[in-house]
Amino acid sequence: MGFFQTRKAGAVVLAAAVLFGVFFGSHRSLDAVRSDVWTIFEGEGNGSGHGVKGDLETRRAVGSNLYNLLNDWNYLSPDDPAMATLQDAVGACLVDSTDKAAQEDLVQAIDQVLSLTEGLDGMREEHSKYISNFRAQLKSIENTLSRDPYTAAAKEFNETTLGSFPASVLGPLTGIRELPVYQ
Is-contact 121 158, C-beta < 8 A? Predict the structure, then answer.
């Protein structure tokens, strides 16, 4: 019990308190900035009420509709590897539409299936228009994502806030990760 009454114990307690304060304070301040950017993602902080999350969910719906229509129209079989990949990618986005890797897989799968539709013989004109509309909708989503305020704010958070010292060291140590940037 005598140890706690020494200068050494006081120094240890003071050092522990300072370290705790640095880590806890860093986490709180970085998390607050990250949360502000995330509200833009949800559509709450950008003034329009429209967020990236809605665009990602629309992209998933386009992939699902593309799969269902091509299957219903008997242009591509569900057993086709590209169709199976698209179905898996849509399913992964259903689990978490904000998962950046799942979104990237979905974009690749949709592109692959759309490229297969270009070479299909005997496609009815009305079906071809649906496919063209899917392409246009996906380009629109891509354009919207590239200009969305969230994208700029997430890039700034990742590069400026987390990219500078001491946040570049303390951020990962306190569980603060980069925000996903969707394209």
Answer: no
